[in-house]
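S1.2 Input.
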Amino acid sequence: MDAKIVYEDKLMMAFKDIHPIAPVHILIIPKKHIASINDIEEGDVELLGKMIITARNIASELKISEGGYKLLFRTGKNGGQEVDHIHLHLIGGAALHEEIRPLEVDWK
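S1.3 Output.
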């Protein structure tokens, strides 16, 4: 399945998630390999800022800014990271529930 690219420049690309959880679900991915948020370095600050600005711009282009959206980085197994490369989820286009909670009830 080919990615439906919505944005690309020399530093990153953004495309539609193949398993969307909302009407708008875009992945913003840097071209530089960074395995996870745990692996970012001081020199990556500008790149990460550009990822967030890109998400904001895409949200505006897709007309979901006013209604709101979520930005999400997943980190590590417990954070739900499935791919060994950082990516920022832009999720919106509908009212979103907050479903982030431990899988197990007895965590306290």
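S1.4 Remarks. The chain is about 15% helix and 25% strand.
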